[in-house]
Amino acid sequence: MLEKVAVLALPPVAVFELGVLCELFGYDRTDEGLPAYEFSVCSVGGRPVRTHAGFSLSPSHDLTPAEDADLVAVVPNNDDQDPDPEVLEVLRRAHARGAWVMSVCTGAFALGAAGLLDGRRCTTHWRHTDRLAARFPTARVDPDVLYVADGNILTSAGTAAAVDCGLHLIRQEQGSAVATQIARRMVMPPHRDGGQAQFIETPLQPIQCETLQPVLAAVMASLDRPHSVETMAAQAHMAPRTFARRFRAETGATPHDWLTNQRVLLARRLLEDSELGVDTIAVRCGFGSAATLRHHFGHRLGTTPQAYRSTFKTRAA
After folding, report:
1. CA atoms within 13 A on the CB side of 31
2. Surface-to-core class of residue 22, CB atoms within 10 Å of its CB (0-12 exposed, 13-18 middle, 19+ buried)
3. Is 122 designated active site?
4. What is the C-alpha separation between 27 and 101, in angstroms, rounded?
5. Catalytic residue among 105, 122, 165, 285, which?
6. Which tens digits make up the pLDDT trace of 206-227?
7. What are the pLDDT digits (tens) for 235-266?
């Protein structure tokens, strides 16, 4: 059962992320028929810990509560250096005895330093996924999800994704009814569709490259028209095979993948900023049909065009 929760506050503590864990597990909601958790915020030696916001907090515990906690969670910290060896040992022991071990955002770097991500699927904030993968090459980093549960190791993406991860754990341990009630108290959906790819702001502009820039610019200006390796190669005055090799060398993607990505990006902008219907947007972006747009949208963003619009559409005040 999930009864005892210990949060490791490592400097500099990210205040909002710590607050998410306090909101999920630190409130007594027994008067509403919800379970209570024995909740502890811990630091090495119980010493005060500075926060990224410029003030310090004074945890009421050293690392002792983490030794028998059902959940040991790590909030974002200075991920440029490994945490105190004492922290790493606490994380390893928690995992070894079968406790849940959870990281919030860049707290995943602490789990990596403890060796808990080796061979595991995991995630972190999308801005840091490449660095996490480079630092811990045996970890299987997934940049396109809100959270990952791999065995008893939980990793969540940026900021609010900790809510999704925490509610998932509560749902697993105490059922959907409890998770839904807590989500309702927090004015949050019990479950969000899609992944953090929905929230990554990617500029709609051609990649700066050495020789193919004019071709990319011309394609970007006419995404509603048919394009292929052959037509783009003709614009570059190259043979298709030569063009495809040069394209990958300069952009890091195949022509088809790059073109599809640009069309999805344009569709995102039109869904956010226009009143156009999905069928019209599909034509404007070069997909031809709403079915094709939905296919590529789901594959790349893990959601539907309509769901994306309902979440992100700018509304006039």
Report:
1. 3
2. middle
3. no
4. 20
5. 105
6. 556 668 888 988 998 899 999 9
7. 999 999 999 999 988 887 899 999 998 899 89
